[in-house]
Amino acid sequence: MRKMIVGTLLVVFLLSGCSNAMADIYDNESKITSDTNSFNLDGIEQEIEGNSYNATIEKMEGMDTVWTLDTEEETTVDISYDITLYNGKVKVVLIYPDGELTTLAECISNQDNSSNSTSLTLPRGEYRIKIIAGENTKFDISLSITDGSFHELGL
Questions:
Q1: Of 112-116, 117-121, 125-129, which gets the smallest average pLDDT?
Q2: Could you tell me which residues are beta bridge partners of residue 107?
Q3: Which range has the worst mean pLDDT, 12-21, 77-86, 100-109?
Q4: How high is the pLDDT of residue 155?
Q5: Strand pairing partners for 68?
Q6: DSSP 35
Q7: What pLDDT sits at residue 5?
Q8: Which terminus of the chain, N or C, has less C-beta within 10 A?
Q9: Domain ranges within the chain, ordered by starting residue
Q10: What are the residues facing 87 on neighbouring strands?
Q11: What is the annotated signal peptide range for this record (predicted)?
């Protein structure tokens, strides 16, 4: 009887401890602003052409860096984006040299779309843009930024 109770409790603890660690990153600002990337990524088509990035993503969970800029002097960048969300939730954040972040775009419900253009004046330093996705997120994204370097997701 004791073995059965212990076995049952073990199963309950194991199941209750199971969570999707990648999807749990979505609201964790300290993980997002870290220098690391952590993601699950399936079915991606992406293209970098000059100052533009385009991707169709079948499934993403977690976070990955898509753009960086290391500037020696104050710089103004023009940013435009277009996101179509089919499933899950996704956001695009700008991380400042001091570790602060600003959410540039967020789509949190199915069939949610977001597009905008903005100009930002950035003081000297290293900047990053990350894409953060919740559980089983499917989306299309286009980004255009006048300065800096794009990076493929998943590398």
A1: 112-116
A2: 90
A3: 12-21
A4: 84
A5: 128, 149
A6: S
A7: 44
A8: N
A9: 22-150
A10: 138
A11: 1-23
Total residue length of the chain: 155
Kindly list the distances between the CA atom of residue 130 and the CA atoms of 3, 38, 50, 64, 94, in Å, as whole numbers in the listed order.
48, 11, 18, 5, 7
Q: Taking the domain 22-150, which CATH number applies?
A: 2.60.120
End-to-end CA gap in the chain = 51
The pair of three-digit structure tokens given for residue 86, joined into one six-digit string: 């089919």
B/e letters for 134-143, b = 16+ CB within 10 Å, e = fewer, are: bbbbbbebeb
- Three-class DSSP labels, 51-104: CEEEEEEEEEEEEEEEEEEEECCCEEEEEEEEEEEEECCEEEEEECCCCCEEEE
Cβ count near 66 (within 10 Å): 23
Single-letter code of the amino acid located at 127: Y
Alpha carbons 154 and 46: distance in angstroms, whole number: 10
Cα separation, 122 vs 80, whole angstroms: 16
pLDDT digits (tens, 9 = 90+) for 17-28: 444 577 689 999
